[in-house]
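Sharing a chain and its predicted structure for anyone who wants a worked example. Both blocks are below, sequence first, tokens second.
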Amino acid sequence: MDVELPELPFPLRTYGPDGHWSYEDGVLTGRAGGRQDRFVPPIGEDLEPGCDAPRLLGAPEGDFQLAARVTVGFNTAFDAGVLYVQVAERAWAKLCLEHSPDLPTVRSVVTRGHSDDAGAFTVDGSSVWLRGSRTGRALAFHASRDGARWTFVRLFTLGDERQTSAALVGFMTQSPLGEGCVVTYDHLAFEESWPDDLRDGS
């Protein structure tokens, strides 16, 4: 199913399980079902990817910054709302507001065959602003408590410039241990640019 949001200059398409995606009055809503996630554990041998999760993705051209305020209806540890970017089946990354497991936390995961997992900072309440950016082969994640001052989370690559220029970008919901959760994304914003400085709070 294709979805067009007025804030984004590119169409979105659903991937994975049904996320019951809807959009009304500037608010995008998605729902994760029980035991849905995308994570490939780095521990052990011959491990398969974690079960799939609802994604709503599109392919912007050139440099960009995609931002949204993410609000999660937390029910169980590791429920999360996600900004997501993918260049191949085993090359993708997610920036999450996740209940992990005692406090809502901004976390990032980069998967190149197997997934890493890194915490950034905790959040009071169930909302935070998340932002993903791209230029060339480089990708960056930022998060903000107020939507004004941004904290640098990480800078990384998922492939060469050709692969990264064709990346799918958008939104994901997850509930790896629970029976599901609802996530909303509002204050959606898109700019055709790369941040001037990754670490100055802008």
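Comments welcome. The mean pLDDT is 95.
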